[in-house]
Amino acid sequence: xxxxxxxxxxxxxxxxxxxxxxxxxxxxxxxxxxxxxxxxxxxxxxxxxxxxxxxxxxxxxxxxxxxxxxxxxxxxxxxxxxxxxxxxxxxxxxxxxxxxxxxxxxxxxxxxxxxxxxxxxxxxxxxxxxxxxxxxxxxxxxxxxxxxxxxxxxxxxxxxxxxxxxxxxxxxxxxxxxxxxxxxxxxxxxxxxxxxxxxxxxxxxxxxxxxxxxxxxxxxxxxxxxxxxxxxxxxxxxxxxxxxxxxxxxxxxxxxxxxxxxxxxxxxxxxxxxxxxxxxxxxxxxxxxxxxxxxxxxxxxxxxxxxxxxxxxxxxxxxxxxxxxxxxxxxxxxxxxxxxxxxxxxxxxxxxxxxxxxxxxxxxxxxxxxxxxxxxxxxxxxxxxxxxxxxxxxxxxxxxxxxxxxxxxxxxxxxxxxxxxxxxxxxx
Length: 428
Description:
CATH superfamily of the largest domain: Type I PLP-dependent aspartate aminotransferase-like (Major domain)
CATH topology of the largest domain: Aspartate Aminotransferase, domain 2
Strand content: 5-15%
Number of strands: 14
């Protein structure tokens, strides 16, 4: 009698080649230069003993900023209350505090029932677009934008269409130009205010005009307000939802920037607008929130004290404050620079300088960023990583101490001078 199991070892010993595992082809259209190949090269240099100044990411804890003590106490005091899953939308006490803040700002139809807490705003942007988009739907994005927005649109089957925010207009959009981009497939208009990467703060009149565009074309407004309280020189932040009223609006906020708690991964989205218009998107978000069970629970206990407790950011953004003085260091250097221009940021944690075209022909932002890293130990983000066509911009964070930023911009100037001299020798 034939024993089939005698053949099993021989069969199993034959190697079976496996073809390469194919990645999602949509990823080929995604870039995230903030933590891309330049960042990987920086880690290699650090491993070799180099001291790299990281200006590529808005990470307050890396530069000595700490979450406020009353938020730390709130998290520590609820450790034993955080060991079970919470409701998929988030802790009720946290959602009530978020809704109350939105109502106080004038979004009268905000409610705890329409708030979702997530693992940072990044997760909620992805969830929001996944809930909203069908294949081929279009989303209007600022250019430059924070590249997560473009990535999330692409990965969820949508098409990004960009409206310009040029330096010549103070990095502000033109509502007429936005309206001209709208097609029957356009679903949403994204507003990033205060803006990352430019630091632009949108005036109320401009926001009202954007709301009117959305109302006329029945678009959903997606308002990224993670930097809402970080403003300089008398700039005033205006929330979008109070102006939108009946227009469906998703407002994104969190603890990462204003409250310097990036690692806690606490963000939220508040739905507002006409109630009947929100039911389907609310259901979709609730389903997606359920699929990931819940957001990080310990950090949620910090939401209510963050939104109702003492103001800990203004001291950093007024004259004499560390962020304000860091911003001044960048603006003052660019004003004296042989090569650089910058629109003084009115908010957020970044500056977006440009290299003047007349000072260097065929300037390439990526080439410059790599040379700066290799020769001066400074890591920046090329401007094209924020979905602009121009190759003469770069982004830096304002988080280092002012003295360190002055030194960094001395290095930047030196690198630019070497590049300009090399080009002149090549031409000669």
